[in-house]
Amino acid sequence: MLFHVRMDVAIPHDLDPGRRAELIATEKARAVELQRAGTWVHLWRVVGQYSNISVFDVDSADQLHQILWSLPLFPFMTVTVTALTTHPSSLSEVDG
Ligand SMILES: O=C(O)CC1=CCC(=O)O1
């Protein structure tokens, strides 16, 4: 199942700089791990914003929830999830 996910990040300005750097580093390590596993299929920065647009390929909404909930930066994110399905005019459908 594919899900489009937007993550808007808002880390408090008064958070300890060392803690901030640690959170960002652990978030990056987890994102790389999930990309290498084929779960986090796309990861794009939204121009001019501390936000990303991502596509996840997971077995269920529950699995996606667990992944998102456990991200190090999750407490500082607003997450918007959209479930995706095949478009009938997609080449993958047209060409088989
Ligand atoms: O910077 C972000 O958009 C939040 C984030 C997701 C994966 C990562 O490494 O940072």
Automatic annotation (TrEMBL):
GO annotation (BP), single: beta-ketoadipate pathway
Statement: the UniProt record of this protein carries the keyword Ligase: no
Alphabetic keyword roster: Aromatic hydrocarbons catabolism, Isomerase
Source superkingdom: Bacteria
Limits of the Muconolactone isomerase domain: 1-89
GO molecular function, one term: muconolactone delta-isomerase activity
Enzyme class: isomerase
EC id: 5.3.3.4
Pathways involved: Aromatic compound metabolism; beta-ketoadipate pathway; 5-oxo-4,5-dihydro-2-furylacetate from catechol: step 3/3
Catalysis performed (reactions): (S)-muconolactone = (4,5-dihydro-5-oxofuran-2-yl)-acetate
Similarity annotation: Belongs to the muconolactone Delta-isomerase family.
Subunit structure: Homodecamer.
Protein name, UniProt field: Muconolactone Delta-isomerase
Organism of this sequence: Saccharomonospora marina XMU15
